[in-house]
User: Fold these one by one.
Assistant:
Number 1:
Amino acid sequence: MQSFLRPIDKVIFVLLLYISGFSGFITDLFMGSSKTALYFLYDAMIFLLALTSISYIRSGLAYILFFLAACVVLNFSYNESSFISTLNGLREVIILPCLIIFYNKIFAEGNEETAREYIGILKKYAGFFLIAQIPVAYLQFAQHGPSDFVGGTLGDKGSGVLTLSVICLVYFMSHFKKHLLEIGLLYFCLLPLLLNETKVSFILIPLMFVFIYIKLRLKSVLLAFGAAAVFLFIFNTYYSSNSHSFGDNSMAGAFSADFLGEYLAGDIYSSNDIPRLTKIIVAWQLISEQANTFFFGIEYGVFKGGTVLGMSHFALTYQWLLAGTRPFLFILLIQGGLLFTIGTFWLIAYANNYFRHTNKFGIFLLLLFIITLFYNDVFRNQNFCAVYFLLVYYLNSPLYRTETLETS
């Protein structure tokens, strides 16, 4: 049975990576803005991968899955959504545990050759993905300017996901590029981050260079900060935004006290898109009104519906809050309350092997997760989650430690 399932796993995984990574732009061109059918397809693929891997669930992961399932059942016992709406909403919260179930099998003890094969798949995908973003992002930039439309092959409204995906994959590929020309071409793939409006790139690009190059030697520290400073200067010189007004369109303007105060924590009447931290605060206030919603959330599916299924009463009433930019912590609190949020953190710790093998790459990916809690909902994106958690499992595996020793 195992020998039969393994090639099926591989085919499904490759299709998941490439279809979810490239079909968004094609859909924008030929099918309009609706991607409901595609999202359902991605979720189905991830669910199938988990089904083929159930036999590899061990007690540590089983406890977490049971805890999360209990949170969902208790939420369903009192929320006003229909069973179908709840199932529809659960699609976006089960992709994380489903991927972790699958990668638990790929990186199980004794499966080193399989793990190496999947990292090879990711390397090939990363090369295609990074190169493809440059012409696609430029076309989107030429048509729409520096905006959320510049999502590369991920499509319209994918700018935030594109930025974090490029950062992760450039860091990953830097592990294998040792010649100066290869390194230069790899860093040229950061160009799409200059073409969209994601201001978090001001932080992530220098941070990435510091983590890649910094070692406990003066020369390495100077090289790391020097590379970060150069790219920060380039980014600051060529960055522009047509969707926000902040002085001189520079880093100083984008990170001024006045702009950040309004951008992150302004009041609910200050703009059409309620600031990120304000949304988290309002979410905490909403779930705190009752004990059951505080611990188990309001309802699953409030961020879905309206295309095929109808929206719930809560979603219709609070559309002014739920629409627009949505930090991941905001989504977790609204849907699952305090306990599901804790369960998700527990799942992240499990995927990181409870940080037993801490390294620079692992710390960097953990920082990305923390940033997204307050920044955007990239962990609802199937492609990013598939890449991110494969990297997490890779860097916690003996394979990564062996390759690090060989290339150091």
Number 2:
Amino acid sequence: MIMKKKTLCTSIKTLAITLPLIAAVSGCGSTNAPAEKPAAATETVAEAAPVVTPEPVSTEETEAATEKEFPTRKDGERFEATIVMEGMEETVQYEHIVDEAIGIEMDYDYEQFVRQKRSDREVFVSEYDDPENPENYLEVSYSPEDADTVIAMVSEMLSQTYDITQESYDLDYAGPCTRIGASEDKGTNQTAEQMQMVYVIPAEDGSRIGIAHYSFEGAEGFGRRFAYMMNTLIVIPRSEGETATDGAITDEQALSAIKDYCYASIPDLKSIEEEYPVYWEIESSDGDQIVVLFRSYTGALVRYYIDPASGETYVTEFVSGITPEEERTEETLNVKDYIK
């Protein structure tokens, strides 16, 4: 295999997750810049659970969550809230967003994070990170798959790289969900440099998925802030408007999506390609199939066979002198999860 490390990267529409999916965030989405702070009423946000090593939700926490009333805020409304960081209360500036395309309302800290709104997901990137290659960011997306299917897919993907944890958890407004934590490199008992916490929220029309990405250094700070933001999420009915991932995939979309997928799957690839030859190209294309060739820094030739209608993709690999011919791997994905 040429993929040394897979992290769940980007959004998950049919959840070809490498969520990563789960890290190909670029600055092409629209960004909402901070505005003046209004003198709004202050509210206290419920204490978020520990992020890196989650503890089981207590009965008291669950009962408290069920007593919460849904807030009634308008899209773009800003207000102050109070969270607890390292045992100290902190006032944060939140903005309420309504995204009918993925079926959510939620709040985000507009002083700490830059919002990148895309057709198929919401992304909140730390203002201190490079927006083209962030380490600390939260993605929220929709999947038509039921929660059990999403949980199985995410767990299988993350388990290739991490020793994972899984727990039932209650969000204040979205209710019961499943949290999948990935903070240790597989089989090492060592803390991973890049961590993830995935929230899978069941809904009548499928699932809502939140994926928090944060570095080892930012786990306590960013991980906790993301947990607070996820705790504000409300599931709402989705609109049925057309998205960027509807319709047949073009060659350009396929090539760009596979690049993002590779960057998400191999975290050090951008630095590696500065020293070793790496390239992507459309090897063939017709109405039934698009083939994207990735020449890896290892010398392996990896081909992605894409169904332009559904986005479903399988992968083959050929290594000169090692494999006798092109061989299909067990790796699959859906490129629509990587189309911006």
